[in-house]
Specification:
By secondary structure, the chain is an alpha/beta fold. It has one domain: L-arginine/glycine Amidinotransferase, Chain A (5-stranded Propeller). The protein is 35% helix and 17% strand. The chain has 18 helices and 15 strands. Strand 10, helix 10 and strand 11 form a beta-alpha-beta unit. Helix 4 packs across helix 5. The protein is globular. Bound molecules: N~2~-(3-carboxypropanoyl)-L-arginine (SUG). The site of N~2~-(3-carboxypropanoyl)-L-arginine (SUG) has 21 residues, from loops.
Length: 446
């Protein structure tokens, strides 16, 4: 069976802005109030996926969400015309207006957790949208995410969709950003590494003190259960509390795995050796750990550069390419580590590709945050609905669509502009036509 990983990148929405909404995400907190450039943000994302497609990697896209989410404001008691709802929210609760305008669905590593069919007992690909209950602006995503995934992966013979977990702190779930599948190659049965920040029920109480732990053990276990994974296929590891307190709000800011390779920072896991041992015990092929010690890259450098928020991609000859954000070039220790430790080391990483996703990075989203990995067989690829697999024609249409509809300047004060809301609806309505998705947005469902 020819399994292939497809990276589904989130298209950056027209309301991309810097509102400082994410507590514990150092970039988001420090760039609050900056003027954003949504057009540049979307084009940077499209350039990344075009160049990866040109290099032979399979690429898909997921649409942005409807923002501002006026439905959410109405549920919170703001009534009247759309313009009135926006004006009142801007006046009485500006923090709520900012939350309902966030373009955070671009970070599709948080959209869902996905289990390939080769690992699931029923032989289907399983999806659970992340409940993202740890922040209000992200909690608004899962309903539409579930609808979009169900519309693309509609064929019930191939795909199974589960409900998001109960949106309560005990089941706080942030999706694939805390999930890594390791296997000799994509078609081989895999071992699933779930990394959590805290335990809700019981545990020894060791958890971060400064910033919130967004993923719970109980959430990770529930997702594994939904997907039918057993003990022999799963490892649950606690994230190092020090890492979270340094700004590592998801595991994908401190570790990345692909195939048999696990690239990780010394402080990624609370029990480093125990985690590696548990993986080795379960994997059919030898694990290839690539450890970056704290002397080579400090936690602060890791967070500032997003070295570990890289995409690790398999090449046809078995080597791997690491796609890193431009910020890695700006930190000497990180750049040196890439050259001397990673490229020169005994591991399959043979190439480093630098991508500029600065607009997203300023909100704490690197190359790996922007994509959801879905490993599919040929038959499953053929069963995809809609026009979401990237080719030159689709890329060209998406670039033209962004250039037609997106602003090149958006400050938090612009979010109350009713014209922004109507521009966004026009753009999204056109986008569902381009992607042939049918009706997925609240404004289309009536
Ligand atoms: O949830 N930023 C996102 C970044 C998510 C990155 N994803 C992964 N690491 N997989 C977050 O913290 C900031 C939005 C703002 O401030 O407007 C934000 O939500």
């Amino acid at each position: 069976m020819s399994m292939r990983e497809i990276n589904f990148d989130g298209l950056v929405g027209p309301t991309h802005n810097y509102s400082g909404l994410a507590h514990g995400n150092v970039a988001s907190m420090s760039h609050e109030g900056l003027v954003a450039n949504p057009r540049e943000a979307a084009l940077q994302g499209l350039e990344k996926i075009k160049s990866l497609m040109d290099s032979g990697y399979a690429q898909g896209v997921l649409p942005p969400q409807q923002r501002p989410d006026l439905g959410a404001l109405r549920e919170l008691g703001f009534a009247g015309s759309d313009a009135r709802v926006l004006a009142r929210a801007a006046d009485e609760a500006p923090q709520l207006l900012r939350a309902v305008c966030s373009a955070s669905s671009m970070w599709t590593a948080n959209a869902a957790t996905v289990t390939p069919s080769v690992d699931a007992p029923d032989g289907r690909v399983h999806f659970t949208p992340a409940n993202l209950q740890s922040s209000f602006h992200r909690y608004l995503e899962p309903t539409t995410t579930g609808r979009v995934l169900a519309s693309i992966f509609a064929d019930e013979a191939c795909f199974a969709h589960h409900p998001a977990l109960p949106a309560t702190p005990a089941f706080s779930d942030e999706g694939a950003a805390n999930h890594t599948r390791l296997a000799g190659e994509h078609g081989e049965p895999g071992v699933h590494l779930y990394v959590y920040g805290r335990q809700a029920f019981g545990g020894d109480g060791i958890a971060p003190r400064r910033y919130p732990a967004r993923q719970t053990l109980e959430a990770s276990q529930a997702v594994a259960r939904q997907h039918g994974l057993g003990d022999a296929q799963t490892v649950f590891a606690q994230q190092h509390p020090e890492a979270i307190d340094a700004g590592v709000f998801h595991n994908d800011v401190i570790a990345v795995g692909n195939g048999p390779v696990l690239l990780y920072h010394e402080r990624a896991f609370r029990d480093e050796q125990g985690t590696l041992d548990a993986l080795r015990e379960r994997m059919a092929s030898p694990l290839i750990p690539v450890r970056v010690p704290v002397e080579a890259v400090s936690l602060d450098d890791a967070v500032a550069s997003y070295l570990f928020n890289s995409q690790l991609l398999t090449n046809p000859d078995g080597t791997m390419t690491l796609v890193v954000p431009g910020e890695c070039q700006e930190r000497e220790a990180v750049w040196r580590c890439l050259q001397d430790h990673l490229l020169a080391g005994h591991n399959p990483i043979s190439e480093v590709v630098v991508k500029d996703v600065k607009q997203s990075m300023r909100n704490g989203g690197g190359p790996a945050c922007l994509r959801l990995r879905v490993a599919l067989s040929e038959a499953e690829r053929a069963a995809i609905s809609g026009r979401v697999l990237l080719d030159d024609a689709l890329h060209g249409e998406l670039v033209a669509w962004v250039e037609r509809h997106y602003r090149d300047r958006l400050a938090p004060a612009d979010l109350a502009d009713p014209a922004l809301a109507s521009e966004t609806l026009t753009a999204l309505d056109e986008l569902t036509g381009i992607l042939r998705l049918g009706s997925v947005y609240p404004f289309q469902l009536g």
